[in-house]
TrEMBL record:
Full-length numbering of the shown residues: 305 to 608 of 665
Source organism (scientific name): Nocardiopsis endophytica
Subcellular location: Cell membrane
Protein name (database record): Heavy metal translocating P-type ATPase
Top-rank lineage group of the source organism: Bacteria
Family: Belongs to the cation transport ATPase (P-type) (TC 3.A.3) family. Type IB subfamily.
Amino acid sequence: STMPPLLASIANAGRHGVLVKSAEALERLAAADAVALDKTGTLTEGAPRVADVLPLGGEDRASLLALAAAAERPSEHPIARAVVAAAREEGLEPAEARDFSSVPGEGVRAVVGGDRVAVGSPARLLGRADGGPGTVTADDAHERAREEAERLEAQGRTAVVVLRGDRPAGVLGLADRMRDGAAAAVAALAARTGRPPVLLTGDAPAAARRTAEEAGITEVEAGLLPEDKVARVRAMEDAGARVMMIGDGVNDAPALAAAHTAVAMGRSGSDLSRRTADAVVVRDELEAVATAASLARRARRLVV
Ligand code: ADP
Ligand code: MG
């Protein structure tokens, strides 16, 4: 072909399912020598379903699900969608919630009926026995909720706790499927950069480690807020790496912006992450990222 190598390889990457936005973006893709990736919606499909409903403290299954769904209904988060869908599948119509608010990396709060309700991260809502952030309490119901959450997380589930007032009403376990080809993509990216890819996630350590293992990832940073993801990317860059960050969520946008090279998931990804990115994986096939990086390298060799 008579097409200049850069344009030819942008076109070629496009055929492999990666939309590279410019020649500069291609150059950054070629230069990346480390990979950081998000878990939910990037490594996994990001469409979790409620797999476990564990009522506590005299709550019953239906009232627990209905309560959680009422508080989650205004939220766009994949966990919220899964909880609302699970309630509907059981024929429950969630009540109207008032004073809704959502906290990134934590969950949602609302008033349902006369009760203050919170649904979200066990580490943030229950506190930790190890003296970490949150309210540490020796209370039995809290202890039970913590135990159930840990048991679910050890199975690779994302656990969320439901509080009615200050009392745990139960714990929900969410299961998310690994993307097809995730392990192959991780291996290809590791081979390309010569370093193990790092998983950055807001999910709990145990759940994250389980998913990481399945994908062949050994480096895991869990329990991260969006700004913590930024800090991790910056730390890698300060240590001399040119980081390719791959993410999908609104919560990944700051880390994408901080990274040398930003890659967004096209289908499941948020508008914000797509706009921030150098390259977009149009069919959400992670392996295409490694292919595009190889094409970018080859184009650079031809040009330089
Ligand atoms: P990730 O980095 O894996 O994409 P997020 O930052 O979106 O994750 O969420 C991190 C954690 O915050 C979740 O695992 C969950 O515990 C909690 N969380 C966030 N939003 C919600 C919500 N709407 N309902 C329940 N829990 C939530
Ligand atoms: Mg995500």
